[in-house]
Amino acid sequence: MNRQIITCTGYGGTGSSAITDLLKEFSNGLSLGDVEFWFLQDYNGISDLEYFLIDGNHRSRVNLAIKRFKKYIDEYDKYYSKFFKNYKINSLEYIENLIDAKFQKSISYYELDSKFKKLFWFKVSPLAQKIFAKILNKDFEEFSPYFPRDEKVYSIPHVERFYTETKKYTKKLFDTLDKGYDFIAIDQLTPAMNAKRYLNYVENLKVVIVDRDPRDLFLLNELHWKKAAYICDTTNIDEYISWYRTMREHKKIEKVHKNIAYIMFEDLIYNYDVTLSKLYAFFEIDEKYHTQKKKFFNPDISIQNTKLWERYPKYRRNDVEKIKKELDEYCFKK
Hints:
two-stranded antiparallel sheet, Rossmann fold, alpha/beta
């Protein structure tokens, strides 16, 4: 069997890192725990690059997208280099393999980060050039202001070429982690939404999407996290219910895929053995390799963060009951 890349993801606070913790217990794999790797789904990451090079290819935007990807490489080099040897070298080689043309062309307004430079080159300078042209009696019909020139690039790869180069790139990164394991487990390589898109970026990728009872998510934020940035504010119960439901609408329109699995966090606790058997089959991993069972993910400990409405029966009781009524299809039942 070829080495698998396994990732887990969720909706913010839903417990996806339980999967990477669980996979630490296997002797035939490498799990990086709850360290998050966003370079596929991040702003200016691989998914954005695909859009600008494939779906939204535009002669003025491709160059900007590639520049932003290179900036992303620089910005996160220190972080990812802790895990991937030669991260920057491999990343720059990847983007160079996607570039089809290089040429000199005038700067673009959107390529300038400085407000002063934007003001000078696209307001002050053109106006000054028009004034001088008028003084010199130049022909305004063909007037074109001067802008500094810069090296630009363009790429128009076929979608299969993009996927091939991207898989080669991610394989190089993962090969630097370890070549001797049957699997490598990494948190947050993909979002929960449209996870199928990301299967095109990594060879032999499997995704586990973890969800959590909306009542527990609500109470965890209210009682412990105190306005966590990664979930909707829970002050207004109607807004929370709308947010929770909307974030999961994608499951109703996305097709089932053999490399994507959905589980409830509570199933890892209350149906531990049954859920484990399902995960063994999904990962295609023999149970014999699960040699440190419950060392890193212990359901007897994690159970403390479930069914909080029973532990705090009086806390915002009406809101909890409203969540149960409005979001019953997402509530854990046992």
